[in-house]
Amino acid sequence: MALFLFLLLAAVVLGLIGVVADGLFYLLIIGIVVLVIDLVFVGVRWRRSRRGPLR
Question: Which residues cross the membrane (predicted)?
Fold first, then answer.
């Protein structure tokens, strides 16, 4: 969960810098990519954890 929050924070910061700073549009793109990867990562982990215990 800490990795998810760290990546989420990094994506938001990169996105804000990319929007505010002139000529750093690529940081916005990198922030969006990090956010998408983070959401996929959490979705895969959440899906695995829903399985019941093996008997």
Answer: 25-46
Q: Are 49 and 39 in contact (CB under 8 A)?
A: no
Residue 54 lies in a domain: no
> 6 in helix, strand or coil?
helix
pTM of the model: 0.71
Q: Token digits for 7?
A: 């990546």
Total of domains in the chain: 1
Give the distance, in angstroms, between the CA of residue 50 and the centroid of all CA atoms in the same chain: 21
- In-domain check, residue 8: yes
For 27-47, what is each residue's pLDDT tens digit?
888 888 888 988 898 888 877
Amino acid found at 20 = V
Residue recorded with tokens 């954890």? 49
